[in-house]
Amino acid sequence: MKAVNKVDGRAFPLGLKNVDTDVIIPAHYLKTISRIGLGKGAFETIRAQPGNVFDDPEYAGAPIIIAGDNFGCGSSREHAAWALNDMGVEAVIAPSFSDIFSGNAFKNGIVTVVLPQEAVDRLLEVAKTDPIHIDLENKVVTTPYQDRFAFEIDDFRRNCLMNGLDEIGLTLANADRISAHERTLAQSQPWLVPVAA
Amino acid sequence: MATKPRTLYDKIWDAHVVDQRDDGTCLIYIDRHLVHEVTSPQAFEGLRVAGRKVRRPDLTLAVPDHNLPTTARVDAAGSRLPIADVESAQQLAALESNAPSFGIKYIGATDREQGIVHVVGPEQGFSLPGTTIVCGDSHTACHGGIGALAFGIGTSEVEHVLATQTLQLKQSKTMEIRVEGTLGFGVSPKDVILAIIGKIGAAGGTGYVIEYTGSVFRDMSVEGRLTVSNMSIEGGARAGLVAPDDKTFAYLKGRPMAPKGEQWDQAVAYWRSLATDPGATYDKVVTLDAADIAPSLTWGTSPEDVVPITGVVPDPMSFADPSKQAAAQKSLDYMGLVPGQRMQDIEVQHIFIGSCTNSRIEDLRAAAAVAKGRKVAANIKQALVVPGSGLVKAQAESEGLDKIFIEAGFEWREPGCSMCLAMNPDKVPPGERCASTSNRNFVGRQGPGSRTHLVSPAMAAAAAVTGRLTDVRELMA
Predict the structure, then answer these.
(1) A70 touches chain B (CB under 8 A)
(2) Which domain holds residue A26?
(3) A20 touching B, CB under 8 A?
(4) Most buried pick, A53, A90, B122, B456, via CB within 10 A?
């Protein structure tokens, strides 16, 4: 996974609440068996509307999306994170994210920044004309106008993002503990090994 | 020393902690992993690239469901029919070859046990109380209906579970949703969960695991509990739980993969110990009165957009939150509805009875009871009944439900996700309206431009025979 320390650039001022993963990537794009190429279907229903932010040349190639509450709700499809990756989005700023989406985003190196609605409103305004700067190391979002919004992020996730760490590899380093747990279970809950049907 | 009273969630969580980091993140053991064709190909690909194997293929079960057409799968001679959509066929073929090559049990498209993973898991006794269950599908919350901590995961997590049988997780907060009283005439478990989501909102449960408590859930069938828990995610909660009880044990006993003999007794004793201790507290408590819940349905494009069937389309300006006002107006434009319109005057063109929310035998019985002796209205273009599994289908046929549906003018299909999500040939055309027993009324969910009203199976059958959204109680005399 690519290491990410900061995200710098223009931001799509989307602003909508409850942007679900069907909106981020509709189901008919889920038939792929690869992780790449999904950017072409990203936000298809929004892009069908004239004057939408994603097709506005002002924001072409923006690495940030600014959205409303509950971004990424709905289906667990990781294709939503892959679609964002494929369209070059490296961070999303919103007042809240669905739990599943923020996990998927993290696993694909996308930074999810939670800020209060007032800060998001201010950033939506700035984004129309200027770039936004996300500093993961110092956990702060800044603008060219002295705005400075501190945010919280889980230390483990921050560390993994900043070092591009592979979670499976980290877990497998714990394989002894997993084996010990399995030995205990075999004693205490022997029924957990399914009967071969 | 007396131990602190714990909730059902706390007990299941504590029993699965393999390791804990200083920041509170835990390595949680996963007892059951369901795999379907949509969210697994890239996970298997990842394992291959890294040269990793599946740690516990015996705890993993693969079933195709999302892409499968619900039309006949074999020809008259018993040969498998090809799948027309090239990409669907490719994804299904990937699962069919990945499962055996990683040593995973696979229930195939033409096996009679095939069905929607969330119907198959409990039905096979693969899903058990007190276990952790994951699947690359957000409706995994469903299995909480039998008292399992079950939740949806993304594909990277699918790969993580395949490789390690664990997940890195932080403990959730707990929310008790207590519904006391007796449900009114014609009110089903689907109406209960719609009313709950209408109350807490689509993000109300974010960060929480919900435990459903109170007499309504104690009195509810296991099928009904699966329906309720299934839609926990539509209220933002990754998982829901109902404490396992005698109903749960009776439901699971004798299922093919459930424990047998002495191990069964041992398991039941353990499962009984999981109920929330007296005095345990939840981070949040929400209460509803059963008497206030009417047959309900959605008017907009978020599952929180719920009204009773006797209600009207709301005025967007009636919402206090300005962003909700804007969202409601957008929803109404998309849905082709105007404020003040009576829900019961809204005509529909499509009926879908199925999905992991409402495709079990009780759901089909409830719909058939309304359809019996009636005819699908002339303005209905398509009315589908899609059993959740081959076993549900066989059971329904043994009870003659298929004949009731077919005589009324419904199509009786093969098991799968069908019209819930527009990944297979069953879709609602643009601008057309569907009374659907599925779980999501999102923009484009049932096909580009499709308009969805989420309802119970009985309400869907009622809409089918009148051609418009209908208060099922009027047909149930």
Answers:
(1) yes
(2) 6-164
(3) yes
(4) B456
A38 lies in some domain: yes
Q: Tell me: do B200 and B163 sit in the same domain.
A: no
Q: How would you write chain A as a 3-class SS string?
A: CCCCCEEEECEEECCCCCCEHHHHCCHHHCCCCCCCCHHHHCCHHHHCCCCCHHHCHHHCCCCEEECCCCECECCCCCHHHHHHHHCCCCEEEECCECHHHHHHHHHCCCEEEECCHHHHHHHHHHHCCCCEEEECCCCEEECCCCCEEECCCCHHHHHHHHHCCCHHHHHHCCHHHHHHHHHHHHHHCHHHCCCCC
Domain count, chain A: 1
- CATH number, domain of A22, equals 3.20.19.10
3-state secondary structure of B330: helix
Q: What is the pLDDT along chain B (477 residues), one digit of tens a residue?
A: 467 999 999 999 999 999 998 888 999 999 999 999 999 999 999 999 889 999 999 999 999 999 999 999 999 999 999 999 999 999 999 999 999 999 999 999 999 999 999 999 999 999 999 999 999 999 999 999 999 999 999 999 999 999 999 999 999 999 999 999 999 999 999 999 999 999 999 999 999 999 999 999 999 999 999 999 999 999 999 999 999 999 999 999 999 999 999 999 999 999 999 999 999 999 999 999 999 999 999 999 999 999 999 999 999 999 998 888 999 999 999 999 999 999 999 999 999 999 999 999 999 999 999 999 999 999 999 999 999 999 999 999 999 999 999 999 999 999 999 999 999 999 999 999 999 999 999 999 999 999 999 999 999 999 999 999 999 999 997
Residue A191 lies in a domain: no
A155: contact with B, CB 8 A cutoff: yes
Q: From B225, B259, B292, give the residue that closes a domain.
A: B292
Mutate to test the interface with A, among B33, B128, B157, B172 (most CBs of A within 10 A): B157
How far apart, in whole angstroms, are the C-alpha atoms of residue B136 and residue B38? Answer: 8
Subunit contact A156:B23, Cβ cutoff 8 A: yes
Tell me if B66 is assigned to some domain: yes
The verdict on residue B3 lying in a domain is no
Same-domain status, B407 and B333: yes
Residues 341-400 of B with CB under 8 A from A: none
Query: Which domain-ending residue is among B107, B142, B169?
Result: B169
Min Cα–Cα distance to chain B from A98, Å = 6
Nearest to A27 among B42, B206, B423 (CB): B423
Helix B401-408 to helix B390-398 angle, to the nearest 10 degrees?
90
Report the residue of A17, A19, A33, A38 to disrupt the B interface, i.e. the one with the largest count of B CBs within 10 Å.
A33
Q: What ipTM does this complex have?
A: 0.92
Q: Which domain holds residue B74?
A: 8-169
In a domain, A183, yes or no: no
A84 located within any domain: yes
B1 in a structural domain: no
Residue A27 to residue B267, Cβ atoms within 8 A:
no
Q: In chain B, which among 258-287 make CB contacts under 8 A with chain A? A: 258-260, 263-264, 266-267, 270
Same-domain pairing of B306 and B455: yes
B214 and B89 share one domain: no
Indicate which CATH number applies to the domain containing B323: 3.30.499.10
If one counts every other C-beta atom within 10 angstroms of the C-beta of residue B89, the result is: 14
Q: Which residues of B touch A105 (CB under 8 A)?
A: none
Give domain status of residue B2, yes or no: no
